[in-house]
Amino acid sequence: MLSYERQLWSNGYERVAGLDEAGRGCLAGPVVAAAVIMPPRVESATIQDSKALSETQRLDARALIEEKAVAAAVASCSPAEIDDRNILQAALEAMRRAAADCRPSPDFVLVDGNQWDRNLVDAPWPSETVVKGDATSQSIAAASILAKTERDAFMRDLHEEHPEYDWASNVGYPTQQHYDALRRHGATPHHRESFTLFRD
């Protein structure tokens, strides 16, 4: 999980940030991103792709990341921003915001996926994209854990306002219960109007 980071450390980069996001496929709620800089040459088996961990494991890993990280930040783009920009551009912007909020700042960023172009995203850091990076880079995996746990907690808080959509369980993803609730109650301001919210 440190092969990308080791190469960068050997090239003189010390503050390598992993960037990842959560919530791209949801019908409701923000897209949330995180940036994490872990200490050089510190490896932990606890930090893995968030999708491969149980909720308890993710929360344990989050606590470890928050304890050990040199820097970590979380940022988001709202449903309105998603509708205005489109989901890809909103996800990239959320990652840029998270990296910009890191203190100290990164001197290199590893970005999950293959869509990042630092010139188009208007990001100052040298960068590398990593397909399935949350499964192959510890820094990106750490970011995936922070983004996922932050977003899940946010949606569960929103559930208290709108329990009919069952966001405590589906955290905004497109489940049958979520679609059924949309048909019965309509959309809330937290739903993404640019997404297909109603289906036959």
Briefly say what this structure is:
This protein is of the alpha/beta class and 200 residues long.
What does this structure look like?
This protein has 200 residues and is of the alpha/beta class. The chain has one domain (3-154): Nucleotidyltransferase, domain 5, CATH 3.30.420. Helix content is 42%, strand content 15%. A five-stranded mixed beta sheet has the order 3-2-1-4-5. Helix 5 (118-121) links the parallel strand 4 and strand 5. Helix 2 (55-68) crosses helix 6 (138-159). The longest helix is centred in the last third of the chain and has 22 residues, at 138-159. The chain is globular and about 55 Å long. The mean pLDDT is 96.
How does the SSE layout of this entry go?
Blueprint: H1 3-10, E1 16-22, E2 31-37, H2 55-68, E3 71-77, H3 79-85, H4 87-101, E4 108-112, H5 118-121, E5 127-130, H6 138-159, H7 167-170, H8 176-185
Parallel strand pairs: 1-4, 4-5
Antiparallel strand pairs: 1-2, 2-3
Helix pairs in contact: 2-6, 3-4
State the major sheet: 5 strands, mixed
Number of helices: 8
Looking at the structure, the CATH topology is Nucleotidyltransferase, domain 5
What percent of the residues sit in helical stretches (DSSP H or I)?
40-55%
| Uncertain segments | none
Q: Ends: how far apart?
A: 43 Å
Number of domains: 1
**Computed structural class:** alpha/beta
* Helix and strand run: HEEHEHHEHEHHH
Mean pLDDT: 96
Strand fraction: 15-25%
What is the CATH homology-level superfamily? Answer: Ribonuclease H-like superfamily/Ribonuclease H
Strand order of the largest sheet: 3-2-1-4-5
Top CATH class = Alpha Beta
Count the beta strands: 5
CATH architecture: 2-Layer Sandwich
Query: For the CA atoms, what is the radius of gyration?
Result: 17 Å
General form: globular
